[in-house]
Structure formats: C-alpha cells, structure tokens
Amino acid sequence: MGVTMGLNLLLLMAMVATNILSLYHLSSTLQTPKPPTPQPVPDHLLHQLHTLRATINHLTRDHPSPSTATAKTTKPDIPSDLLLYSQLSPIASSCHNHPDLVHKYMTYTPFSLCPLDSDLAEALILRGCHPLPRRRCFTRTPPKPTSSLPLNPFPPSLPDSNVLWDKYSCKSFSCLGGKNPNLGFDLPHEVSNFMSYKSELDLPIPQLFQIAKAANSVLRLGVDIGGGTGTFAARMKLYNVTVVTTTMNLGIPNNEAVALRGLVPIHAPLQQRLPVFDGVVDLVRCGHAVNRWIPATALEFLLFDADRVLRGGGYLWLDKFFSKGVDLEKVFGPLIGKLGYRKVKWATANKNDSGGIKNGEVYLSALLQKPVSK
Ligand SMILES: *[C@@H]1O[C@H](CO)[C@@H](O)[C@H](O)[C@H]1NC(C)=O
Ligand SMILES: *[C@@H]1O[C@H](CO)[C@@H](O)[C@H](O)[C@H]1NC(C)=O
C-alpha cells in the first residue's frame, strides 16, 4: 500500500512538473523580448494554473490509498466501475475537470448492453478527457448490417444499415449528402477532390507524388488530421499509400463513414497527442479542421506533434489553413517557421466567401519538408 501511494505521488509530481514546465514554456514564448522588466502573468495562464491546482487537489483528495477508501463509507451513488477505474488509473487529469460527465459515462450495468452514448464519450474526449475509462459492457451494433461492404473507398453509396442513426438528425447517408455536399458524404462528388488544380492553393495528389519523387522521398504512410469522412485517405489508398484519418463526429457519422470506406478512423481530437510512434510517417496533412479557430498555443503543440511523428524528409501539408491576414503574418507564419522546415510550397490567397471578407481572412496552402537531421 505504501508503495502504491508512493508511486501515485511520484506520478503526480511528474505530471505537475510536466505541466509547470509547459506553462513555463508557454509563458516564456508569450513574453516579448524585454527581459529586465517583469511582465504581468496573463490572465489565461493564471486560469490554467488555477485549474491545475484544482486538479491536483482533486487528485490528492480523490485518491486515498485503497485501505482508507474502504474504511470510509463510500457514497452509494458512485458507479462502482468508476471507483475501480480510479484506483487502477489514478492520473487522468482532464477527466477530473468534468466529474459529472465521467460519472454519467460510467453509469451503466457491467456485463450487459452499454447505453447508447457515443455522443457523451465524444463530449468527454473533446474536453480533453482522453483516453476515456474503459468499460465492461457490450457496445450496441446495428441490428441488420449488410455484409456486402464496399472494397472501393469511393463506392456509389454507403450502406445505411451499418450505422446506428439514433443520435443523428439525418437517418441516412443520402440525407447527409443532400444536406451539404461539402460534408463529404456525397461520394461521387468526392471522387474529384485532391485531383485538380483550380488555384494556386491546390496541390493535386499526382503533383505531390512528383514532388516527393523528385526529392527522392517515398510516400507510403500518412496521417490526415481532422479528415472528415476520409476522402484524402481514400484517394491515397488508390495510390497504395496507407493513411489513417483522425476525425470527430460532431453530430454526423464521420467515423462510421471512414470505416465503411475500408479506411482507418482514429477518434481523436486535435488537442490530443497522435497515437503514433515518433518519426515513422512520411506525410501529415492538416485539412479544414485545422485553422484559426484553434488557439495559437494549441496549434503550436499540434504542429510539434506532427513533427514528432514525421520522419526526417517527411512532409507536412497545411491544406487551405485560414486565418486573419494580419495573424498569418504576425502569429501563424512565425509559428510554422519554428519547425525549421523547407518550404516546398507556400501559397496564400484571400478567402473570398462572406465570412472571409468580413474577417479579412486569407488561406495558406503550404507543403513543408522536415529536415533529415536537426
Ligand atoms: C497499387 O497496387 C496494385 C497491386 O499491387 C497495383 O496493381 C497498382 O498498379 C498500384 N497502384 C499504383 C497507383 O501504384
Ligand atoms: C479571391 O479573389 C482574388 C481576386 O479576384 C483572387 O486573386 C483570389 O485567388 C481569390 N481567392 C480564392 C481563394 O479563390
């Protein structure tokens, strides 16, 4: 027991140290280069520190050693699997900030059917509670799935019977396709994506292969960050390149669609470390999901994680990243520059839709090559 406690404390201290280090790093990058005058600590950092302290308090309070836990009268309304899990996995910091949701998620009957709550799981993941506690229940599956699944990643249609539609407002793929062709569910419409050059922002895949070939760099493995229904991975599959797609559902069955196309969906949010080992992939693409909506510090971590998984000589493709023009110049351009990658392509253009005009936004399409050695 003493050993477990000691280990927990050690892990806790390691976590605190890491967080403080990253806060230190953030605060040091946020300061303007005027060392002698001490800068006031920005409010959001104070807020982060406060959250961190609250989390630590929570962790130390909520993880007594097993013997004291049993000595105390445990509240009967806490799901027993949640108690069990928190003893097995004492540190899962972000989950502790949303005890109500975790509590709801862990309220189920072990060894029977799980509640229909994939939306609840996603809500937790989006709040940084990842990995989620594991559960011992059986996830529901569609009652009458078809076994004739498409082998082609661009089938004329996807089988509706292989999706649980209960949580979605549309109840079929054709409904989703008809709603908005840009959602990526109208597959005949998706076939032409990534293949043509309409403006300098485009990088058709044949051209990408030419660039890689000319640089003596082979493309075999990739990660598409925020890849929606997986059309980039689908096109790359036809070139015999394996691409995994991180995608969140956000009210539409993106993960289901990727899988029904015979591609690998990874249900991971943008703020999460990619579940891929260091230096192993040839290409990382950041699509529409990655743009100015992401706080600059979160984007910095995302880019450094992309760097982590890329091999030397691999490519980072920012596909139509958009931000305010002034921010691209002052914030995002320098941030991307921190990677020290070779600019193979760097194209910007005004974003001419109504939102873009209103906010003075621009697009950036960049293909960057990671240096072979630092
Ligand atoms: C992909 O692999 C298949 C089977 O080996 C081959 O027939 C096809 O030509 C390859 N496609 C490309 C674009 O290299
Ligand atoms: C926006 O309009 C300008 C001027 O017509 C054009 O040069 C630019 O390419 C357009 N941007 C996009 C993204 O189409």
Automatic annotation (TrEMBL):
Query: Has UniProt tagged this entry with the keyword Chaperone?
Result: no
SUPFAM superfamilies assigned to the protein according to its UniProt record, in alphabetical order = S-adenosyl-L-methionine-dependent methyltransferases
Q: Name one GO molecular function term.
A: S-adenosylmethionine-dependent methyltransferase activity
Quote the InterPro entries the UniProt record gives. Methyltransf_11 (IPR013216), Prob_Methyltransferase (IPR053223), SAM-dependent_MTases_sf (IPR029063)
Sorted UniProt keywords? Membrane, Transmembrane, Transmembrane helix
Give every Methyltransferase type domain span.
223-317
Q: What is this protein called?
A: Methyltransferase type 11 domain-containing protein
